[in-house]
Amino acid sequence: MTFAPTRASPALPASMTHSWGVSGRRGRRHTAVMTAATPQEQVAQWAGMFDRLSSSYDQTGVPFFSVIADGLVARLAPVPGERALDLGAGRGAATFPLADAVGTAGHVDAMDIAPGMVEATRTAVRERGLSQVDVMIGDASEPALANGAYDLVASSLVVFFLPEPERSLALWAALLRPGGRLGISTFRPWRGVWRSIEEVFWDYHDDPGRPAATEMPEVYATDEGVAGLLSRAGLHDVRTEIATYVVPFADTEEWRRWSLGTAMSGLWMRAPEESHPEILARVGEFLDQSRGPDGRVGLEVDIRYTLGRASAG
Ligand SMILES: C[S@@+](CC[C@H](N)C(=O)[O-])C[C@H]1O[C@@H](n2cnc3c(N)ncnc32)[C@H](O)[C@@H]1O
Questions:
Q1: How far is the CA of 108 from the centre of ligand 1 (A)?
Q2: Ligand 1 center to 162 CA (angstroms)
Q3: If 47 and its partner were Cys, which of 113, 139, 187, 312 is the partner (CB 3.0–4.6 Å)?
Q4: From first to last of its 313 residues, what are the pLDDT tens digits of the chain?
Q5: Ligand 1, atom 13: nearest CA belongs to which residue?
Q6: H helices then E strands: how many in the chain?
Q7: Can you tell me which atom of ligand 1 is nearest the CA of 57?
Q8: Which residues, judged by CB distance below 6 Å to any ligand atom, belong to the binding site of ligand 1?
Q9: Neighbours of 204 (CB within 10 A)
Q10: Would you say residue 44 lies in a domain?
Q11: CA of 88 to the centre of ligand 1 (A)
Q12: Measured distance CA(44)–CA(11) in Å, rounded
């Protein structure tokens, strides 16, 4: 779904990228040539973008990231006393429900690479008096943590930012105790109004050589692709569950503010400033099509939860 300019990693060549919203009309985007970057450069690029977003990320009150993370935590079924790890914790969408579930007898480590996210989440943890949570800065693609230390690892809407996801997932699996659980959430390909909105932006992006902000590696286009990542990372009993959430927006302006606080800001940044009012008007027409009887916009988003277990040892 929502991505600022990205580049394919050497491990995932351009031919293996998938554009979520590709249509015949704008098929030029489908095969955009990507400039290879080192994994380290890619990690730094995302860290910079999320650091810039950190003060507004997930702060508009639109129930999006927390709802998705709640679904992940529920599926991982933490119990009091367990040790949990939240990788790519952002503003704590999964961290807080994990902390509630494991209680003060348990522990949650929350890691993010963006200093602004870490600082803001640390403050929220302090304000809530959660002694069982540690928020740390670190690279989830290669977490420097003790193997076998966690009962469960959660990562909500993160893995598609990692340059070598299979390798990272194998490292995450090693952090689990024997039989420990791992769960990730990812976006299924956009459809309906999300896709139409994305296509509106494409009309204003004038450099087709750069990948679209919403492109991601082909492996995330299918449930089997993501399940395969976990299986090849050495996880067992891999299963996929899908949830469709209806994201409510009061109006177009709320949608605009929300989008600017997410990785969708990349779509805005690539369109010339003077085109923004026109983009918003066109997006508004699509949003109007999704109004319910109460007048509120409700946009359906499909989330994929992929879960697995470490071997029993
Ligand atoms: C879409 S946000 C999701 C945040 C949170 N899990 C949530 O559901 O709201 C992606 C998060 O992953 C973090 N991230 C991206 N690459 C990372 C990496 N290599 N190591 C750690 N965190 C990373 C970003 O800083 C950002 O906070």
A1: 16
A2: 9
A3: 113
A4: 433 223 333 222 233 343 333 333 333 332 222 344 788 988 998 899 899 999 999 988 899 999 999 999 999 999 999 999 999 999 999 999 999 999 999 999 999 999 999 999 999 999 999 999 999 999 999 999 999 999 999 999 999 999 999 999 999 999 999 999 999 999 999 888 988 998 898 888 866 555 554 567 889 999 999 999 999 999 999 999 999 999 999 999 999 999 998 888 888 888 899 999 999 999 999 999 989 888 889 999 999 999 999 999 7
A5: 88
A6: 10, 9
A7: 9
A8: 43, 46, 50, 58, 65, 69, 88-90, 93-94, 111-114, 117, 139-141, 156-158, 161-162, 263
A9: 17
A10: yes
A11: 3
A12: 17
Whole-prediction pTM = 0.89
In the DSSP assignment, the letter for residue 132 is T
DSSP letter (8 states) at residue 85: E
Please give the distance, rounded to the nearest whole angstrom, from the Cα atom of residue 274 to the centre of ligand 1: 30
**Domain assignment present for 201:** no
Pocket test for ligand 1, best of 40, 96, 113, 168 (most atoms within 8 A of CB): 113
Ligand 1 atom at minimal distance to the Cα of residue 162: 19
Quick one: tokens of 218? Answer: 């082909």
Whose structure tokens read 């690029």? 45
Token duo for residue 280: 């918003």
**What residues make up the domain containing 35?**
14-190+214-246+302-309
SS (H, E, C) 205-256: CCCCCCCCCCEEEHHHHCHHHHHHHHHHCCCEEEEEEEEEEEEEECCHHHHH
Evaluate whether residue 61 is within a structural domain. Answer: yes
**Residue 139, domain member (yes or no):** yes
Cβ pair 80, 104 in contact under 8 A: no
To the nearest 5 percent, what fractions of the chain are helix, strand and coil? 40, 20, 40
**What is the count of structural domains for the chain?**
1
Q: Is 142 helix (H, G, I), strand (E, B) or coil?
A: coil
Copy the structure tokens of residue 29: 């985007």
